[in-house]
Specification:
single chain; 217 residues; 7-stranded mixed sheet; 7 helices; globular
Length: 217
C-alpha cells in the first residue's frame, strides 16, 4: 500500500483522479517531483513559497497547476507573475511542445526560474520584468494569485489578442472582480476540483471581445 504522505503516490493518484494519467506519464511525474526538490532546496535560502511540506507541495503546487492542462490552447503560453514557476513550470514539464514565458519582476524568483529552466532543459524562457513591459503574442496566458481581474487586465490586457485565452486561477468565486471586469472582455468561470485540496478553486477564462460582440452576462 502507498503511504498517504508519499509524494509520488499523491501525484500519481491525483493525476488519475483528474483524468490526466495518460497525459502525464511516469517519466514526466518524476521530473515534476524533481522540480519540487529543486524548489525545496532554493526555499531553504529564499522565501519562494510558504508551502514547505513535500506532500502539501504536490497538492498545492503540482496538482493545482496541472488542473489547468485541459484548458491550455496553442503552443505559446505566458505565465504572468510566475513566482516559483506556478503554474508555468508544471505545464511546461507536462507539455514539452509548449513554449512557456515565465514572467516575474522579482530578482530572486527570476533567478530560481532560470535555474529550473536550465536544470530541466525546458522549452521556456524567463522574462525578468513587470507584466506591463512584456510584449509578444501568446495563445494562452496564465496567472495564479497575481492580482484582481481588473488589475490583471489593466497591466496585461495588451497581451490578450482576440485569438488568445487568459486562464486566471482564483479561490472562491470572484463575484466582485467579475462585476468590475472592464468593457471589451468576456469571462467564463468554471469550478475546479483539485484532489486532496479542501478549498474552493475556480478558473476564470477571459477572452477579448471582437468589435460588435456583446459580453456574456
Amino acid at each position: 500500500m502507498h503511504s498517504p504522505t508519499d509524494p509520488a503516490a499523491i501525484l500519481a493518484d491525483g493525476l488519475h483522479m483528474l483524468g490526466l494519467g495518460a497525459a502525464v506519464p511516469a517519466a514526466t511525474q518524476q521530473r515534476l517531483l524533481e522540480y519540487l526538490q529543486l524548489l525545496d532546496r532554493w526555499n531553504q535560502r529564499y522565501n519562494l513559497t510558504a508551502v514547505r511540506e513535500r506532500a502539501a507541495m504536490v497538492t498545492r503546487h503540482l496538482l493545482d497547476s496541472l488542473v489547468l492542462l485541459p484548458h491550455v490552447r496553442g503552443t505559446r503560453l505566458a505565465d504572468l507573475g510566475s513566482g516559483a514557476g506556478l503554474p508555468g513550470i508544471p505545464l511546461a514539464l507536462a507539455r514539452p511542445d509548449l513554449h512557456v514565458t515565465l514572467v516575474d519582476s522579482n530578482g530572486k524568483k527570476a533567478r530560481f526560474l532560470q535555474a529550473a529552466v536550465d536544470t530541466f532543459a525546458l522549452n521556456a524562457e524567463v522574462a525578468h520584468l513587470r507584466v506591463e513591459a512584456l510584449n509578444g503574442t501568446f495563445d494562452t496566458l496564465t496567472a495564479r494569485a497575481f492580482a484582481s481581474l481588473p488589475d490583471m487586465l489593466r497591466w496585461g490586457g495588451h497581451l490578450l489578442t482576440p485569438n488568445a485565452t487568459w486562464l486566471a486561477q482564483k479561490g472562491k468565486y470572484p463575484a466582485d472582480e467579475l462585476a468590475a471586469l472592464p468593457a471589451g472582455y468576456a469571462a467564463e468561470t468554471l469550478p475546479l476540483s483539485v484532489p486532496g485540496l479542501d478549498a474552493a478553486r475556480h478558473v476564470v477564462i477571459i477572452r477579448r471581445l471582437n468589435r460588435g460582440t456583446r459580453a456574456t452576462p
